[in-house]
Amino acid sequence: MGLLTLADHVHDIVENAIKAGARNVKLTINETEEFFLFCVEDDGPGIENVEKVFDPFYTTRPKKIRKVGLGLSFLKQATEATGGFVKISSKVGKGTKVTAKFIKKHIDCQPVGDLVSVFFSLLMNQNVNFRIIRCRSGNCYDLDSETVKKYLGNIDSPSKLKILKELIKEMEQSLKEE
Ligand SMILES: Nc1ncnc2c1ncn2[C@@H]1O[C@H](COP(=O)(O)OP(=O)(O)OP(=O)(O)O)[C@@H](O)[C@H]1O
Ligand SMILES: [Mg+2]
Q: Which residues in the chain come in under a pLDDT of 50?
């Protein structure tokens, strides 16, 4: 995992929720000229050692190739390098909430990257219920797995994949034009 863009971080934190076994994940992204704020809330098992999760190489997952436990510690470094922060709150048996803020104007802020591809790869996974709320300078769209399912049914063909990607692209585009 490269974690070269803010979109990579978003994807990585949502992946944590999925790997932990969450059924419902809410992703909120609030972006302005000044900052990029994202929040991932899940209903997974929660974390017992919250104070440990920012330690490099802390992981509860069986070691596989590339499973190294660096996601949250990289996120912490990347946010703080811009004057931002990351906060995590978790209740065992209830779920976890991760909030991260980047100050975009800071010279060390990573580029925003390809959010459309991140949203697309999340919504393609129909085993988890996602709700994505994306705002840019006060304009927002709200997209969820249920709505996608209602309109497209099971995403089981290349043409449906294409429609889904176009839909997300258009919604993202509409934020720029308004
Ligand atoms: N949403 C979550 N729900 C439950 N546990 C979590 C969640 N997010 C992180 N954790 C716990 O924190 C640990 C550290 O997370 P982190 O993202 O830093 O590393 P990792 O996911 O184990 O490995 P990597 O991100 O490098 O692939 C995880 O192994 C997991 O135990
Ligand atoms: Mg991780």
A: none
